[in-house]
């Protein structure tokens, strides 16, 4: 259970982030639903509040240090603690070496810098609160790769390594903060659907058939299946886990 815990989830107005927010709320946490789409974040929080759950919607551009500082300060003022950080916001834009630097940098800025800034500004409050759990959402493409995902794979590989470095840093500081990475496979989220839709039609069809075909369980995942794992990593049930990479991919990387 996560009773009396305070959690912050970035990119939480939809997809895996929203599923995680609902599950953490149901387990007793007060969840701050952060998203660059402020209206969607507030609407999601209101929907959960209407169910008798504890949720607050906030606007957050994860590439902005100032917005991270403002969000953490708000949580400190309102809750005086932070126990769980889920760095979930990300871009799923595909790319190859033929694409320009602007696209590559855009993906890196959100997927890598956004995670760094989240940890930089949230971990001190978590340490002050007596410790907690950071869950950085990477991807199976932080472990393996695809020819159409150059920038995305690079960014998610960086998140994987960053997580391990942060885990060691927190352990050396003895601040009670654990840091783990989650590596989803193909999950039915707006990011995955939109990413595939952005590909040329013939490439998208072949790509979808290939990826689903390579998943031993024969299907893509659902957001709540990742949300349940996030809840486990957020809880004390995972108290001896830090620097770990948790793969939830229907067996894709087992081949």
Automatic annotation (TrEMBL):
<keyword id="KW-0560">Oxidoreductase</keyword>
<dbReference type="GO" id="GO:0047936">
    <property type="term" value="F:glucose 1-dehydrogenase [NAD(P)+] activity"/>
</dbReference>
<dbReference type="InterPro" id="IPR002347">
    <property type="entry name" value="SDR_fam"/>
</dbReference>
<protein>
    <submittedName>
        <fullName>Glucose 1-dehydrogenase</fullName>
        <ecNumber>1.1.1.47</ecNumber>
    </submittedName>
</protein>
<comment type="similarity">
    <text>Belongs to the short-chain dehydrogenases/reductases (SDR) family.</text>
</comment>
<dbReference type="InterPro" id="IPR020904">
    <property type="entry name" value="Sc_DH/Rdtase_CS"/>
</dbReference>
<dbReference type="InterPro" id="IPR036291">
    <property type="entry name" value="NAD(P)-bd_dom_sf"/>
</dbReference>
<dbReference type="Pfam" id="PF13561">
    <property type="entry name" value="adh_short_C2"/>
</dbReference>
């Amino acid at each position: 259970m996560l009773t009396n815990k305070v959690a912050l989830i970035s990119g939480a107005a939809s997809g895996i982030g929203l599923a995680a927010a609902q599950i953490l709320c149901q387990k007793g946490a007060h969840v701050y639903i952060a998203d660059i789409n402020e209206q969607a974040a507030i609407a999601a929080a209101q929907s959960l509040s209407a169910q008798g759950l504890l949720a607050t919607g906030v606007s957050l551009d994860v590439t902005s240090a100032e917005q991270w500082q403002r969000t953490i300060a708000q949580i400190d003022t309102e809750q005086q603690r932070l126990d769980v950080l889920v760095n979930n916001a990300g871009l799923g834009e595909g790319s190859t070496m033929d694409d320009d630097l602007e696209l590559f940098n855009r993906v890196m800025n959100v997927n890598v810098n956004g995670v760094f800034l989240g940890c930089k500004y949230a971990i001190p409050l978590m340490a002050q609160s007596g410790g907690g759990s950071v869950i950085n959402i990477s991807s199976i493409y932080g472990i393996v790769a695809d020819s159409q995902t150059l920038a995305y794979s690079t960014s998610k590989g960086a998140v994987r390594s960053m997580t391990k470095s942060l885990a060691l840093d927190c352990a050396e500081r003895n601040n009670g903060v654990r840091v783990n990475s989650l590596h989803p496979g193909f999950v039915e989220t707006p990011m995955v659907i939109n990413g595939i839709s952005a590909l040329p039609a013939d490439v998208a069809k072949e790509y979808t058939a290939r990826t689903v075909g390579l998943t031993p369980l024969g299907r893509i995942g659902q957001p709540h299946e990742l949300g349940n794992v996030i809840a486990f990593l957020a809880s004390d049930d995972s108290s001896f886990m830090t620097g770990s990479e948790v793969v939830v991919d229907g067996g894709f990387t087992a081949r």
